[in-house]
Queue: 4 jobs
Job 1
Amino acid sequence: MITLGVLNDAPGIRHGFFTRQGGVSTGLFASLNCGYGSADATENVARNRAIATARLDLPPDRLVTCHQVHSAEVVTVERVWRREDAPRADALVTSLPGIALGILAADCAPILLADAEASVIGAAHGGWRGALSGVVDATVAAMTVLGAVRSRIRGAIGPCIAQRSYEVGPEFPSAFLAQDAANAGFFAPSRRERHFMFDLGGYIERRLHGLGVGEVQRAPHDTVAEEDRFFSYRRACHRGEGDYGRGLAAIAIAE
């Protein structure tokens, strides 16, 4: 489990970005696969989630996740729900103690947020589509409805695909440049003509700073390159593998 100092110092907040290590799954899903969306055995995923939530000193039934669809939809969590009742969304916020907000990722950026003074937390799934359409903006706005203050919010961007591993095609930058010409800074030339290397984590960090979030920290990892530590959708695609595991990131207010 990886933690970041920006949230380690937040009183009453527990968080973790879980690696792929320490679980019960095998094969492509070895070993801490927490994604029911994979073809892994359901009982393995359930056991892995229990292992992860135990690291946060919570029982497995206190973890809530959503059916992620690369959107900017945010759900305010007022109770835990069954897996089959998970809403279609890409971010969760709550002010309730003892509930872990979980995000699943395999190259996309998991984003954990907290205003410890207000006891308000948020978690967001930062794929490029959701990031571009404003998932972090919507998450921070939903936190303020619960009493959070933007300047007090601390944000942690977990392990994700690094710029050196994220090649995109010639059509990709246009939507980002239409939003803000300064976004050109998140694209570096690729070795392939008319292709680029995209800095997803840097883009999300800038969005958070632009919202007035007080502190932001990024994990210095590359989910594609660090195979022993992280699941990766892109790596699986490059190898022609039929499926891939999902890593969990979670945050909770201590009871």
Note: The chain has one domain: 5-253.
Job 2
Amino acid sequence: MQISDAEQLRRFESRRDNPLKSYKLTEEDWRNRAKRKYYEEAVEDMFEETSIPEAPWVVIPAENMRYARVDVLNTAIRAIELGMNLHGIEPLTPLT
């Protein structure tokens, strides 16, 4: 799941300012955020080196968390159905 720098900052600040969620945000999170550029480069390298046709990486846009969660589920379902089809298994028809 991928979010922009601005959205990550907004979420961090929101969590920091919420007494019910502030415990989830640590100094380590802020230190790692300062290294975001290096993490992004490492992620790109990882995708390039490890994504293969049989097991591709899928980047899910996550600016909107509700949309992202649905997209993750749909992506997983498509991958499972594709794998089933490749092995001659017919996926069940969704209930209507």
Note: The chain has two domains: 1-55, 60-96.
Job 3
Amino acid sequence: MLNKDNFIFNKNLGQNFLSSKIYLNKIDNILQIKDRDVVEVGPGSGCLTNIILKNQPKNLILIEKDKRLIEHLEKKYKNVSILNDDCLKLTINTDILISNLPYNISNEFLINLFFKNNVNEVYLMLQKELCEKLILGNSYLSIILKFIFNIEILFHVPPEAFTPKPKVYSSFIFMKKHNEIIIENKHKLFNLLKRLFENKNKKIINILNLKNNDNIPEYIKELRPMHCSMEDFILLSNLLK
């Protein structure tokens, strides 16, 4: 049994275990995972894992980077596959992904969802400020995710719900894959969006130096990144060399 009073939490791994029964029960009432394949990233002490198993998934795989926790997880969960690995180095293929994600890898993890992970539904605990930015759609990260997922904030969580307490509020979000817009070159689109949103208050004609480029429609040149549609970004990405 893991003794959280004696356990030394690793700040480099962003370890803040969700321990509040109130918010674990909220998640219990929300999950729709019965008879479905599930992967949990960063199970930690297993509080969220218990809720997942209570909801009777078809299969459950746990991915935990901290070697110190593996023995605890293997003793506690006999019929669950447990990988001691770094989720950022893996391609995750599953129906449902669930994680109380370490905040220091949030951006990289979400970018991986865009590029290489084949997941239909995602339940994530993230920093509240990041979740609100994802909903607003005013960053390259929020745009690339919206090419693949519909995103919904389910509820907010105070620092007191975690052990140890983080310095920020969190949010539990749900991301569901929609009919994905066809993207010819994801890396090209990603680099374009990153460049555009680093200068999001400027017009696209000035950000990309398109004054003498006749391939790009004039209406797109005059837009600012925040005012572009998904189709505008795709068109721009396809027409640029």
Note: Residues 11-177 form a domain with the Rossmann fold fold (CATH 3.40.50.150).
Job 4
Amino acid sequence: MGTYEFERQTVCEGDVLPFEKHAIIVLNRDGAFQMKNVPDLTDRQACRGKKLITASGKWTIETVGSIDNGWGDPKSAWGLALTGDTGNLSIGFMGDEAPYKLIFTYGDPDEGAVMIFSRK
């Protein structure tokens, strides 16, 4: 819970775009969330566009995928499931201990195309 600010992204080449600096995600204790000015980087062709997502809805903690070490022993990846104005969206937790960062992964996870938010 708390407010998370945009930290960095590896989806688009180059420096942080000015509009990314004001992107935040707010997670409330009651399970509600708000996203404000989050860049829509679902398509790399849109990297220089200025489409921003502002949405609200509910969040829950659940498994959002798995991490495979290559030896056939995948581990559950935990994160947030967001439902609401965004449709259904998953955001992973990043880090070994709280406060965790939030990580959006785009496309094939092995490509490393991500957007990261850190707790304010």
Note: The first strand starts at residue 2 and ends at 9.
